[in-house]
Specification:
Elements: E1 7-10, H1 16-27, E2 31-36, H2 40-52, E3 57-61, H3 70-85, E4 90-95, H4 110-131, E5 135-144, H5 157-177, E6 183-189, H6 196-203, H7 205-213, H8 223-233, E7 245-248
Parallel strand pairs: 1-2, 1-4, 2-3, 4-5, 5-6, 6-7
Helix pairs in contact: 1-2, 1-8, 4-5, 6-7
Length: 254
């Protein structure tokens, strides 16, 4: 069942998984605000695709490494809601923005740690805190994690630790937003063929083949495999799923 006239905010929605999330949500009848870090041109292409479907969309700049900028972003987002939709609230928050980084533990620096903490955990925590008053009762919050919180990949000790923190945060948030009927879940993708982390899963045939061999369904993921799950969780049919880690990997390392 499609829920009409809902508004979603997808961080990091200009490319990769976030782009497909935004498009899938629009196909399900929702309006979308997406954020980008540097590629405004790519973000506007996604906006145009959504508008071509007959839905409203907009793009805003957001640097999740700059946690101090979050209050200004929230003010800008609220002004956009008021000017474009004549509203002061929205329905779905998808915390997707992120960067890939393969950093062996012995080579990790405090600067590496702080950057990945800001992007993957601290900004998720405080952006959600600041946006929560704007989320309608009965809304949805979806955080993006990774399969590597369950299985280990060398070089991902910082990245996956931050995603593990997001998974714990998700359960706590689900408990605290329950009285408002806001569900909170975390989606954990496995290897996906996008430009994430320099496109290694997409552009390196040997790596792609190796990862496919570890997956029960015999291939790496595509962006649409993840976007469809996000759209489902924002549907009425997904409304009884709450506080859960949903791994979307095709069955890797079973």
């Amino acid at each position: 069942m499609i829920i009409e006239n809902k508004i979603a905010l997808v961080t990091g929605g200009s490319r990769g998984l976030g782009k497909d999330m935004a498009l899938q949500l629009a196909r399900n009848g929702h309006d979308v605000v997406l954020t980008y870090q540097s590629r405004e041109d790519a973000a506007l292409e996604v906006v145009n695709e959504i508008v071509a479907m007959g839905k409203n969309a907009a793009a805003l700049s957001l640097d999740t490494n700059d946690v101090a900028s979050l209050p200004d972003f929230v003010k800008t987002f609220l002004r956009l809601l008021q000017s474009k939709w004549k509203k002061q609230t929205f329905d779905f928050l998808i915390n997707n923005a992120g960067v890939g980084a393969t950093i062996p533990f012995a080579q990790a620096t405090e600067a590496d740690f702080d950057r990945l903490m800001n992007i993957h955990f601290k900004s998720v925590y405080f952006l959600t805190q600041q946006l929560l008053p704007l989320v309608n009762d009965g809304g949805r919050i979806i955080n993006i994690s990774t399969g590597t919180t369950r299985f280990c990949v060398p070089g991902y000790s910082i990245y996956s630790s931050m995603k593990g923190a997001v998974e714990v945060f998700t359960r706590y948030l689900a408990k605290e937003t329950g009285p408002r009927k806001i569900t909170v879940n975390v989606v954990a993708p496995g290897p996906v063929a996008t430009d994430f982390n320099n496109g290694g899963n997409r552009d390196n045939p040997e790596r792609n083949k190796m990862l496919a061999s570890q997956t029960a369904l015999g291939r790496v993921g595509e962006a649409k495999d993840i976007g469809g799950i996000i759209a489902f969780l924002c549907s009425e049919e997904g409304g009884w799923i709450n506080g859960q880690r949903i791994e979307v990997t095709g069955g890797i390392n079973l």
